[in-house]
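Q: I'm writing up a methods section and want to include an example of the input and output format. Could you take the sequence below and give the corresponding predicted structure tokens, formatted cleanly so I can copy it straight into the document?
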Amino acid sequence: MGSWKRLSIQDPAPLGHHCVRVYPLPSDIVVDRDVPIRTADGTTLRANVYRPEGVERCPVLVCVTPYGKDAGVDRYPVDFDALAASGSFVGEFELSDRTAFEAPDPGYWVPRGYAVVVADLRGCFASGGRPRLLLGRAASDAADVVEWAGEQPWSTGKVGMAGASYLATLQWYIAAQQPPHLAAIAPWEGVTDPFLDSLCHGGIPETRYSEFWYSAMHRGCRSASASVRRIAPWLMRRFPDRFRHVAGPPPFEDVTVPALVGASWSDQGPRTRGSITGYTRVGSPDKWLYTHGRKTWQTFYGGEALDMQRRFFDHFLKGDDNGFDEVPRVRLETRHDLRTYSERHEQQWPLPDTRYVSLYLDHGTGGLRSAIPGEAASDRMFPVAGDEMVFTTTFDEDTEVTGHAALRLWVEAKDAIDMDLFVALKKIDPSGRDVRFEGHGGFEEGVVAYGWIRVSHRALDPEASTAYRPVIDPAEYRPLVAGQIVPVDIEIMPHSTFFEAGSSLALVITGHDFETLPDVRHDRTINQGFHIVHAGGRFDSHLLLPVVPAEISADDATGVPAASASLHDLPIAWGALFGRQYVRL
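A: Here is the clean output for your methods example:
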């Protein structure tokens, strides 16, 4: 395993702070505005091109945006001041006044020897045609932009793509089409399965972020698409399952160019899942993962991440022998609290020495135990009234929890045919106070990790699911019947979190969202009546926790399940390995 780096690093961003500094684009950058680019079907897209003055040829970074290539910070779809007023704070970062939303900053990249091409999506702002709903079709247009950039007289023919969120998501679909001039991609916190990653969490429709995102995506669309813009949100509310056909994942095996993937533990509602999935499944032999648990935009535009991106592109677009090919494949950032983290480098994700520890729910003590309680028991909650179930375990020694967690519950719905379950993992310090972490959009009241399930969508996808990561098959619908007790397996978002000796992990189960975060919500739950959770005896309700031993190598342990093991073919006793590490509160 990689050596532990226990040195704590303090994020310098003060709490409740946001400051976006905007500087003028340097005068020695050549700017070509509204350059026409013809797509394969004859539609004309428009792009801005930023080039270094006096440089004959240079590699190119391309992004294609729905948010407006000419929209400066004051016209972004996200109002940073409004975010701060709602309790979300973006921190501090610096952009040139020509930086499109979540796009590479030409003020940074052009002085370092790159051309930057920012094009409007078809049917948006200055580009012709009508918008395309399917990501694969939008990617075809973007692939034409890549090829155009690779053939210009000021281009070396080496083209990369960079950008965050939607600009990252589109990169996966473009790369799968394998345009010849595309030489590298750097998708930063983008989704790879829009339906399961963002639109419908565990079968529960997400209502706030998805509708905001849809509106932001289409604010620059042409009037010809107005009727589609009006009806699509209604369709998303009424028939969310249908959108899995509109926004399916790309063919990962066809993505073969080098990839530097950015993923955060802080953006779990919209993007964390997709970033990790993309890195894990991408077909490229040259891939790197940059993880962090801090603020999205502050980190993306910050010096450390930009340096990593620059070295990556210098190596694969310029051919610099800068040693990037020797960089370990995974930069792992482990959170300690809201402003403290540590980092180290690993070669694989998930970490190969991970021990998947089964902790069983004990209704009698409210604890998480290393063995199944002998007697079956049940407890009920009334989710409409905000009831919760809480189970805890305390760590006797410093412990790192890194990777994918999963929760199996045996559940029953009284007087209902379905139920929505929301799960959170929390860290509690030795004095009993909640330890908070960064959340989506700068929300500073986040927890360790989240999970969601609509029980009627409990059927698993056997090809996508692993021993530690259950993935639902949204096409199957299995309503409950009176008195029926069923097992459900809940995927919990990946993360890396450090628990000091004496701190505790709390598993919280409820039927509603956990925070008042306005940007990610599930407003259309189907809960009624009581939820009943069964544990003990024949009901193996348990949390599967990915623990990284500090001093035990993979060769020291026996009975460790391989990553390809079936979902529940896992050991149930780890006392010989961990001793008295887990003690009930």
